[in-house]
Amino acid sequence: MRVIVTGGAGFLGRLLIQGLQEEGVEDIVAIDVVAAEIPGCRVVQSDLAHDRTLDELLKESPCTIFHLASVVSAGAEADWEHAVDQNIGGMLRLLESCRQSNHLHKVVFASTLAVFGGGTAGGEVGDFVKQTPSGTYGTTKAIGELLINDATRKGHIDGRSARLPTVIVRPGAPNAAASGFASGMFREPLAGIPSVVPVSEETVMVVGSAQNTATGIRMLAEIEGSLLGHDRAVGIPGLSATVSEMLEVLEAVGGPEARALVSLEYDAATDQLVQSWPAQLDDRRGRELGLPADPNLESMVRAYVEMINR
Ligand SMILES: NC(=O)c1ccc[n+]([C@@H]2O[C@H](COP(=O)([O-])OP(=O)(O)OC[C@H]3O[C@@H](n4cnc5c(N)ncnc54)[C@H](O)[C@@H]3O)[C@@H](O)[C@H]2O)c1
Fold first, then answer.
1. What is the mean pLDDT of the chain?
2. pLDDT per residue over 48-74, tens digit each?
3. What one-character-per-residue DSSP string does 197-254 give?
4. Is 154 buried (19+), middle (13-18) or exposed (0-12) by CB count in 10 A?
5. Is 7 near ligand 1, meaning CB less than 6 Å away?
6. Are the C-beta atoms of residues 131 and 119 closer than 8 Å to each other?
């Protein structure tokens, strides 16, 4: 079966493609607006929100589409028009291509815990808690989840939404996510470079490793649709950690010299977004569906170190 990964040249897209290849999937097409080379994978450079690239790719047979292409949190907050155009427009175009093809395609949408906010900010959420996002990013993702549910109900697709925690540790350059510091505070000091944390040490975030999250997204595609019911959005297991606990883990992995490279410099705009997200995730539904969970925070950071040293 053909697998299509939108946003395939991004951080999670590349990891997902690697995992699919390790599982033996051969026909993988990555679509990304940026030019990229991905070993063993056909890459199509295209803007999913405006081009009709998917029409052709979906014509031949039923496919699995992992829809990861997105404008992310701080980027969406800075440019509302672009976020709506890309995140909602891109989703509508994708669903339209599926509907117009003669096959029932499986679609796994990368959503986020930022679909929560408002009254649940800083609190605990689970799969069936009402979504009251406090930012444009979360709003576009919540709309995407609803569109996935409706298209599934109509029989246009077999859809699922993976609500991702903040994924650490992102290698390479940061993207426009407000949560980027949660990766930078490990990545940079472990490479001997200073890093700035723009929120207080007491800030709690729900985090997951890149490896566990990519596996969870892949496994969500395999779950029988009837087990998911009408609401296709599932929280990918993650665990809560304060910034101070993250700093302790940094010290455990990289020593006091790595810890000393992190400084706290408050930034109100970043803090406001991060504080609007949930601090606890009731991930029982995801676990009961068989999605994996990271054992602890330190294992997430050690998995990153292992990955970059491979
Ligand atoms: N990384 C996290 O912590 C996290 C947390 C929650 C949700 N998510 C979601 O997971 C997905 C992947 O995240 P990531 O960290 O890999 O992001 P990323 O920024 O590394 O990758 C996203 C990719 O999408 C591409 N893209 C954007 N708009 C496009 C378009 N119109 N057409 C084609 N390609 C386009 C970008 O060029 C980029 O390569 C996103 O949907 C994001 O919202 C990520």
1. 96
2. 999 999 999 999 999 999 999 999 988
3. E-S-TT-EEEEEEHHHHHHHHHHHHHS-HHHH-S--EEEPP-EEEEHHHHHHHHHHHH
4. exposed
5. yes
6. no
Give the pLDDT band (50/70/90) at residue 1: confident
Record the pTM. Answer: 0.96
The residue whose CA is least distant from atom 39 of ligand 1 is: 10
**Do the beta carbons of residue 296 and residue 239 sit within 8 Å?**
yes
Q: What is the pLDDT of residues 94-103, one digit of tens each?
A: 999 999 998 9
User: CA dist 100 to 54, 104, 209, Å?
Assistant: 10, 10, 36
C-alpha of residue 10 to centroid of ligand 1, in Å: 6
Atom of ligand 1 nearest to the CA of 12: 16
Q: State whether the beta carbon of 167 lies less than 6 angstroms from ligand 1.
A: yes
Q: Which amino acid, 184?
A: G
State the Cα–Cα distance between residues 233 and 211, nearest whole angstrom: 20
Q: What is the set of active-site residues? A: 137
C-beta separation of 106 from 162 below 8 A: no
Q: Is 227 in the pocket of ligand 1 (CB under 6 A)?
A: no
**Domains annotated on the chain, with CATH:** 2-165+209-235 (3.40.50.720), 168-205+239-281+292-309 (3.90.25.10)
What is the identity of the amino acid at 88?
I
Whether 35 is in the pocket of ligand 1, judged by its Cβ within 6 Å, is no
Q: Give the tens place of pLDDT for each residue, 197-254.
A: 999 999 999 999 999 999 999 999 999 999 999 999 999 999 999 999 999 999 999 9
- Please tell me the distance between residue 175's alpha carbon and the centre of ligand 1 in angstroms: 9
